[in-house]
Amino acid sequence: MLPKAILIIGALPLTPNGKLDYRALPVPIAGARDSAECDPPRSALERELAEVWQELLHVERIGRQDHFFELGGDSLMTMPLMVRIAEKFGVPIHVSTILTNPILCEMAADIERLVVDSARNVAVALDATPAWQEETGPP
């Protein structure tokens, strides 16, 4: 198990008895990062995918080099992610795509390829003339 957030503080707060004061510890914010760390999404597709991640992971800022699983995603979140991607972009995505390309820009590139391939397949299907029409002409 990996922690969702790590917070570095100067010193641990202590009670008057010298014990750790758990109530005085600051609460880490999951997904909080330095603004310099976040390389913002570049394309429209990356921005839309980042919005999906924000909704699922409850993280404010998503950068194009962010890793889905390092931001708090887990195997149980892959199914809702697949469903939202299919709804938003109109292409089904396989769980292996999420597992092998969990970085936002890489996942966006895979989705873009799927969208282009899907459009190409539809165009080929629409342009295909049945063999019976080629031989005999229109009925």
Automatic annotation (TrEMBL):
Family matches, as InterPro entries: ACP-like_sf (IPR036736), AMP-bd_C_sf (IPR045851), PP-bd_ACP (IPR009081)
GO MF entry, a single one: phosphopantetheine binding
Keyword Translocase set for record: no
SUPFAM superfamilies: Acetyl-CoA synthetase-like, ACP-like
Name by which UniProt lists this protein: Carrier domain-containing protein
Domain of life of the organism encoding this protein: Bacteria
One Pfam family in the UniProt entry: PP-binding
UniProt keyword Hydrolase present: no
Any one GO biological process: secondary metabolite biosynthetic process
Domain (Carrier) ranges: 40-115
Regions that span the bilayer: none
CC cofactor: pantetheine 4'-phosphate
GO cellular component, one term: cytoplasm
PANTHER family listed in its UniProt record: FATTY ACID SYNTHASE (PTHR45527:SF1), NONRIBOSOMAL PEPTIDE SYNTHETASE (PTHR45527)
